[in-house]
Design a protein that fits this description.
The protein has 121 residues and is mostly helical. The protein is built from five helices and two strands. Strands 1-2 form a two-stranded antiparallel sheet. Helix 2 crosses helix 5.
Length: 121
């Protein structure tokens, strides 16, 4: 019973860190080199500035990403994965592969039956 509780707590911890609609997507794009706020807002369809800011702050607080502010005019901010964030990439990649397979099944149009004779009347 104690092991089941530990398993549940471990899953809850993982979901707290990367759960929700946006965090895995943000991690995916940061891992691909899209690490500036304005680039992220452009490539992530459907997210608004407020939500992106909130999710980035949450990921930073969890230690999954690092935020670097460069003292320039205008200020430049970049996000990179920490070692903890990099350790999550296999999870995000597995989610991506699974999602691609499920999406392909969902959008596949049924083929008409082969070698079936049409009714005469």
């Amino acid at each position: 019973m104690a092991e089941q509780k530990l398993d549940t707590q471990a899953l809850e911890h993982c979901i707290e860190m990367i759960g929700g609609k946006w965090k895995p997507i943000i991690l995916f794009y940061i891992s691909k080199g899209t690490n500036r706020f304005n680039k992220l807002i452009l490539v992530i369809e459907g997210i608004n500035r407020q939500m992106l800011s909130k999710q980035l702050k949450s990921l930073e607080k969890s230690g999954v990403i690092d935020r670097t502010l460069y003292p320039e005019i205008p200020p430049r901010v970049e996000y990179v994965l920490t070692s903890k964030g990099k350790s999550l990439l296999p999870v995000v990649q597995t989610m991506n592969r699974w999602g691609k397979k499920q999406y392909a099944v969902k959008t596949k149009t049924p083929e008409p039956p082969k070698n079936q004779q049409l009714p005469l009347f």
